[in-house]
Amino acid sequence: MNETFTADKNGYYGEFGGAFVPEMLRQNVESLRDVYHQIIESPEFQKEFTGLLRNYAGRPSPLSFAKRLSDKYGAKIYLKREDLNHTGSHKINNTIGQIILARNMGKTRIIAETGAGQHGVATATVCALMGLECVVYMGETDMVRQEPNVKRMEMLGARVVPVTSGNKTLKDATNEALRDWICNPVNTFYIIGSVVGPHPYPDLVARFQSVISEELLSQLREAEGTEDPGYILACVGGGSNAAGIFYHYINRRNVRLVGVEAAGEGVNTGLTAATIAVGERGIIHGSKTLVMQNEDGQITEPYSISAGLDYPGVGPIHAWLARTGRADYLNVTDKEALAAAYELTKLEGIIPALESAHALAALGKLKVNKTDIIVVNVSGRGDKDMQAYFEAKT
Ligand SMILES: *Cc1c(COP(=O)(O)O)cnc(C)c1O
Fold first, then answer.
1. Residue 4: which pLDDT band, with cuts at 50, 70 and 90?
2. Residues catalogued as catalytic
3. Rounded to an integer, what distance in angstroms lies between the CA atom of residue 46 and that of residue 54?
4. Alpha-carbon dihedral angle through residues 62, 254, 372, 256, given to the nearest 10 degrees
5. How far apart are CA 4 and CA 212, in angstroms?
6. pTM score > 0.85 for this model?
7. Among the atoms of ligand 1, which is closest to the Cα of residue 194?
8. What is the dihedral of CA 189, 190, 196, 198, to 10 degrees?
């Protein structure tokens, strides 16, 4: 593993990762792998990528000192404000990167999967920007609980395809997107929304999201005179916002990295999405990682109140960080996340996404001192979750 924390040349993080794809997909995955390194290191790519991040997505995202939250928990708490990006989450960092790649590869049709709809919206957005056709696969259950995002995608010109297999959520949408890619290998680029899927996706998505920790280094230096906080907290669905804010800190061992999974009703209730807590080694969506599965190796259905965390796998990067002990993984129930969302809103005037609320809820689980600096990644804003927040209140 090198300084910048990418997978090895075969896409492995220790024993996790790789590219386990059907023969029909092999060529797609290999050609993406071959061109991506060469393209993303070119000055033209970097110029366009950073230009769009700044002038289109609104980066750098602020680092806000949370005074009242700090008083409550007895530490210095900062919030990395990915909620303020265009389209409302960190997802846009990745879709901007991948759409530039797609265009460079001469692709004319874009497909994506989405859970909460944030990745679908971010993908539909960059497709509108570049004038490319866009098809988004979304589970029917998620289409109901995230309806405003379905409308947004449609207004942006995307076709949203309902997926009715499994429990009709993110895993099932990902299966459909992979199937589409097999059928349309020549003109279609698959924009994956997290650090999951076959190599090179986990590596590539982590790189695009690493802009978060790159900014954090200089923002903390300015605010606190040090680049290194005591703790970095981020929620983990597939793990892309966490990978992005961990990225440049991986080799800074004095910084404690904490990923927060969705426990749902509780890790031992069978209604959970805490893959690192309950998963076993397995293969999902082309990657060897930890997977929620039964004794026969069948993938079990995940559950979380948060559509963005409702995934039975986890990026191989996190399986590896957990296995090596470099990062700690906690989990937070639906109830705890809802309480944390209300708390942040009341204390700081920020309504977070339900996903981000999981990271915030972990604040109460750390043993901290007054002088500890804690950075929480606020991965997205709560607009899409207003219905869940209203229902929780009543
Ligand atoms: C999609 C999403 C997540 C979960 O995805 P990761 O890849 O784990 O980051 C978290 N927060 C928000 C706001 C999201 O939209």
1. very low
2. 91, 113, 379
3. 12
4. 70
5. 14
6. yes
7. 7
8. -60
Tokens at residue 338, please?
Answer: 């809802």
Among 83, 194, 212, say which to mutate for ligand 1: greatest number of ligand atoms within 8 Å of CB: 194
d(CA 29, CA 31): 6
Tokens coding 296: 């026969």
Residue nearest to atom 10 of ligand 1 (CA): 355
Ligand 1 atom nearest to 240, measured from its CA: 7
Q: Tokens for 366, please give them.
A: 């750390």
Q: Is 279 helix (H, G, I), strand (E, B) or coil?
A: coil
**What pLDDT is stored for residue 42 in this prediction?**
95
349 backbone φψ class: left, alpha, beta (φ>0; ψ -120 to 50)? left
For residue 248 the two structure tokens come to 């440049």
The atom number, within ligand 1, closest to the CA of 88 reads 13
Distance CA 282, CA 277 (A): 14
Residues in the chain: 394
Residue 190 CA, ligand 1 centroid: distance in Å: 18
Name the band, by pLDDT with cuts 50, 70 and 90, for residue 394.
low
